[in-house]
Amino acid sequence: MTSIPDITLNNGQTIPQFGFGVFQIEPKDTAAAVSTALEAGYRHIDTAEMYGNEAEVGEAIARSDLDRGEVFVTSKLDNDAHEPDDARHAFDATLKALGTDYVDLFLIHWPLPARYGGDFVQTWRALEEFYREGRARSIGVSNFQPHHLRRLHGETDIIPAVNQIEVHPYLTQDDVRAFCAGHQIAIEAWSPLGQGSVLDDPAVRSVAERAGKTPAQVVLRWHIQRGDIVFPKSVSPERVKSNFEIFDFSLDGDEMTAITGLDRGEAGRTGPNPDEFDYIPDK
Ligand SMILES: NC(=O)c1ccc[n+]([C@@H]2O[C@H](COP(=O)([O-])OP(=O)(O)OC[C@H]3O[C@@H](n4cnc5c(N)ncnc54)[C@H](OP(=O)(O)O)[C@@H]3O)[C@@H](O)[C@H]2O)c1
C-alpha cells in the first residue's frame, strides 16, 4: 500500500500529509464516503461540527477494521461556541458524536474578529484546556491571518500546531504560509482543488497531459511538494481512489512554477475573507 508522508507538528505529534475532507457531504452519504476513503488507504479525516456529519465519520471509523489510533481525526469548533463554557460543551458534543474520547486535532474554525468582542484569545485558552487534558492531542486554528496569530503568540502559552486556510493554484497564500513557516505552524490547505474550479485551467491541463496524470492529481501533487497538508473531498469512489494516487510521480521546478503562477490573489478566493466573515449558525 502507498505510504503517505507524515508531517511532524510543533508539539512532536505527527499528521498524515494527505487525508479526506467531508465538507458538503450529506450526513446520509458520509459513512459510505469515509469507508471508501479508508479502504483506499486514507488515514486522516477532516470534519467539523459545522458540517453536521461528525457522527457518520465516527460510524465509518468504528465499522472499519482499523483501530482508533490508526486514523487521524480532526474536528473544529463551530462559530456559535466561542465563549469558553460553550466551547467546553461543544467539544464534549464533538467527542460524543465521533464516538471517541479524543480527537487528534481540534481547531477554532473561524477567528470571527467582528464577533465576541474580537476575543478569540479566550476561545484559544479553552482549546489549551482540551490539549492539557489530552482530549485534543493537538490544537490549532483555521482561517487565521498573521495578525490574528501574532495576537495568540503574544497572549497565550501554546502556539497553534496548524493553520487551516484556503489554498489552491488560484489562491497560493504565500504570505500567510511564509508567516506560519517562520512560527512553526503547519499549513493545511482547504479546498485544495478550489472546489474543482482549477481543474479546467489550461496550464493545469497541460502539466497533467505531460505527466500522464489527471488535473486533480497534479494539483494535489503540487500541494504535497509545497509541504502543505491536504484533504480533498469527493463523493465519487473513483475520484476518492484516483486522488490518492499521487505518490508515484513528481513535478519538476518548471511545472511547479507554472501552477504557482496561476495565483489571482484575493480574487482567487472561493470562500469568505476571514477578516470579514461573521456567520453564526442558527441552531
Ligand atoms: N476550515 C475551513 O474553513 C474549510 C473550508 C472549506 C473546506 N475545508 C476542508 O477542506 C476539504 C476540501 O475542500 P472542499 O471540499 O471545499 O473542496 P476541494 O476538495 O477542493 O474540491 C471538492 C470538489 O472537487 C470535486 N472533485 C474532487 N476530486 C475530483 C477529481 N479527481 N476530479 C474532478 N473533480 C473532483 C468534488 O466533486 P465530487 O464530490 O462530485 O467528486 C467537489 O465538488 C473539505 O472537505 C473540508 O474538510 C475547510
Explained architecture:
This protein is α/β, with parallel strands linked by helices and about 280 residues long. Helix content is about 40%, strand content about 15%. It is built from 10 helices and 10 strands. An 8-stranded parallel β-sheet has the order 3-4-5-6-7-8-9-10. A two-stranded antiparallel sheet has the order 1-2. The chain starts with 5 loop residues before the first strand and ends in a 23-residue tail after the last helix. NADP nicotinamide-adenine-dinucleotide phosphate binds near residues 21, 109, 143, 216 and 231. NADP nicotinamide-adenine-dinucleotide phosphate (NAP) binds near residues 23, 216, 232 and 233.
Q: Strands, helices and their partners?
A:
Layout: E1 6-8, E2 14-16, E3 20-21, H1 27-40, E4 44-46, H2 54-63, E5 72-77, H3 84-98, E6 103-108, H4 120-132, E7 136-142, H5 146-155, E8 162-166, H6 174-182, E9 186-190, H7 202-211, H8 215-226, E10 229-230, H9 237-244, H10 253-260
Parallel strand pairs: 3-4, 4-5, 5-6, 6-7, 7-8, 8-9, 9-10
Antiparallel strand pairs: 1-2
Helix pairs in contact: 1-2, 1-9, 2-3, 3-4, 7-8
This protein binds NADP nicotinamide-adenine-dinucleotide phosphate.
The site of NADP nicotinamide-adenine-dinucleotide phosphate has 29 residues, from helix 9.
